[in-house]
Amino acid sequence: MLHRIAVISLAVLAAGLLFASGDGAVRAETTRVTIIACENLAPYLDGDGGDATTPADLQAACVDALPPTGPVSVAGVEAALGDGNGALTWEELATVSFLDRNRISASCTYDSVIAQQTKPAAGCTLLVFAFVDDETPVTIDNDSGMTTIEAAGATTDFICTTDGAALGLDDDCSDSVASNGDGIVIFRLLTAGASDQEEKIVNIQQEAVQQSEAIIISDETRNDPNAALDPDGDGVLTDDGDNCPYVANANQHNTDNEPIATTGIGPVDVTLAYSDRDGDACDSDDDSDGAFDWQEGPFASLCLGVRPDPLLFDTDQDGVGDLAECDLGSNPLNPNSIPANPSAANDPDGDRLSSSWENGIGSSPNDADSDDDGIRDGVEFKGYNTSPTDVDTDDDGCPDGLEISSLDTNEVVNSNDLLIVGLSFASTTRPNIDIDKNGIVNSNDLLIVALSYDLACIPED
To answer: Domains in the chain, start-ordered, CATH in brackets?
Structure first.
């Protein structure tokens, strides 16, 4: 996820995240969510995380309404985990163990929890903390088979802001988050007929901002020590390189780190200059074109009233990334619409970026390759979303010039890459081999490979 949001994109971001409240003021929506098993929170409720957990602690954490202040309260959690100022933050709560944070037994229904109180409530209830800073109601929307204590066992959505007198068990939605000052909405999540080994999705939403969490239904014993190695319960251990360690994604799908097909000429290309290690389940920019996923796709408009594909770096395959097209005024869905090259007077170094634009992004208007990685600034900005001022944009030990010039399965630029370019010479239909993104495979591309010849990746520690 390599974000480069220029002026137009900042405007789009602002438009998507701002709304007018009832008093005419404009406030930004923010929702940060974390989930914690109630028994993992119980030791901290009284402000002392070092003492023994009592049945009363479990009752308070797993069943009862959790008040903002008092001897057993949100303030107690902050005193045990934070800086003692009384305002619990997402960062402070995130220090609690994520052990079994998203696993509920199929037997943990609303009736069983309420009827038996802390047994089996301890091990059955997940606390969903939503940290917000405006007055707009927060919604929790569960898949079928899930419910909340607040919904009294029903499977309908539970919509409320928060009640300052009974935080988490909200029966008075007239109080705003701003009025009680804590900025936290708590839901207690249970099952309501889900089957063992199912995966359920829970959406927490405030206006246009939504966060989705995967919940695993599992009758295995809670607090399994091995769960610490796989906090999201998707079967992929953190030590084995889980690309979303706290969001379940067993398939580990990562769009912007997948090999690129070279259209039948040679093997696939595995060196990607704009890749990241975040799987799609937790990556806000799956295609690394610089635009957030919510700015693309069917429910948002990135620019010019069009909606590029959030899984394609260059939706129309015209050699210019989607966000670069929006930034520079062309249509990312029309291959015949590409940014015009600036005049010679406005582009003294001839790198296809105007001097004013280069001054804005920090590259040199008098040096066609500001970071000396073998790739011109305009090609990096438009064609790859790599930084013209950073030799290794994605910090993976492989220089941008190597990753762009290497077209096969190794991590070195050699005669194989020259051969791949040569076999595609004069082609206008192989954009992944058109290195300089000018619409045709030609001598420019051979020259780029030649200038990067023998470059190799630096092994990571």
So the answer is: 29-240 (2.60.40.10)
Return d(Cα 435, Cα 413) in angstroms, integer.
13
pLDDT value at 338 more than 60: yes
Integer angstrom CA distances of residue 130 from 43, 168, 187, 295, 354: 20, 10, 8, 23, 44
| Single-letter code of the amino acid located at 144 | S
Lookup result for tokens 């001598």: 443
DSSP-derived secondary structure letter, 202:
E
Under a CB-based contact definition with an 8 Å cutoff, are residues 249 and 281 in contact? Answer: yes
Mean residue pLDDT across the chain: 76
Distance between CA 372 and CA 388 in Å, rounded?
Answer: 9
39 three-state secondary structure: helix
Give the residue-averaged pLDDT of 69-95: 81
Which tokens is 184 given?
A: 């936290």
Per-residue CA distances from 44 to 70, 71, 77, 123, 239 (Å): 13, 11, 5, 17, 28
Rounded to whole angstroms, what are the CA distances from 264 to 52, 134, 384?
A: 64, 53, 22
Residues 88 and 68: their CA atoms lie apart, in Å, by 10
CA dihedral (213, 186, 210, 286) positive or negative = negative
How far CA 211 is from CA of 22, 35, 190, 244, 369, in Å, comes to 24, 12, 18, 15, 40
Tokens of 237: 């251990």
Reported pTM:
0.54
Q: How far apart are CA 256 and CA 272, in angstroms?
A: 8
DSSP 340: P
Alpha helices in 216-275 (DSSP H): none
Mean pLDDT of 66-93: 80
The order of strands in the sheet holding 209-217 is: 103-104, 209-217, 199-206, 138-142, 158-160
* Lowest mean pLDDT across 1-5, 132-136, 228-232, 384-388: 1-5
Give the span between the Cα atoms of 363 and 388, in whole angstroms.
6
Residues 6+ apart with CB under 8 A from 115: none
Answer whether 167's CB lies under 8 Å from 69's CB: no
What's the CA gap between 247 and 291, in Å, rounded? 21
**And the tokens for 322?**
């989607």
What separation in angstroms does the CA of 227 have from each of 97, 103, 224? Answer: 11, 10, 5
* Distance in angstroms (rounded) separating the CA atoms of residues 434 and 424: 9
